[in-house]
Amino acid sequence: MAGLTQAELGERIGKGKSLIWNYETGYRTPDRQALQAIADALGVTAQSLEDRHLDSVQDVLEVLFRMEEAGFGIEPVRVGSAMAIAVDPDAPHAPKLEMALERWAEQRDALKDGRVSEREYAVWRGSFDVDGEE
Q1: Are residues 22 and 79 in the same domain?
Q2: What is the CA radius of gyration of the chain?
């Protein structure tokens, strides 16, 4: 998405093209320091590059359960015949989560009405930082 070749990215982080290729294909996994260097070179957060392994409904539910336990105040709710996830505003981490969800909604609206492109939206997602600047 940053428009860099593997060689250009490797050069920016002081590594070779083949190592970047190995990371991209999953033959090697970057350590924390390499992941941060790549993120810095791409202008994104290191967290956005981490593989969360959300391959099944069980994986997604496990993340949601962890969020519930960590005090984000999320809970399943029925909205008509659909299911949604709501945020309890009194939960300890709810204010930041609500702010982040609002910013996400704004970006999704901008994508839907054409104010931002798919690429711009992807770049925004990769650079999103609740505590700092985007």
Answers
A1: no
A2: 18
Per-residue pLDDT tens over the stretch 75-114: 999 999 999 999 999 999 999 999 999 999 999 999 999 9
Q: What is the pTM of this model?
A: 0.67
CA angle 45, 23, 122 (to 5 degrees): 40
Taking only the tens place, the pLDDT of each residue in 7-49 is 999 999 999 999 999 998 889 999 999 999 998 998 888 887 8
40 & 63 share domain: no
61 contacts 54 by C-beta, under 8 angstroms: no
Token representation of residue 86: 């709501």
Look at residue 133 and tell me if it is in a domain. Answer: no
Q: Tell me how many domains the chain contains.
A: 2
pLDDT digits (tens, 9 = 90+) for 117-132: 998 998 888 877 666 5
**Does the residue 97 lie in any domain?**
yes
Query: Are residues 46 and 36 in contact, defined by beta-carbon separation less than 8 angstroms?
Result: yes
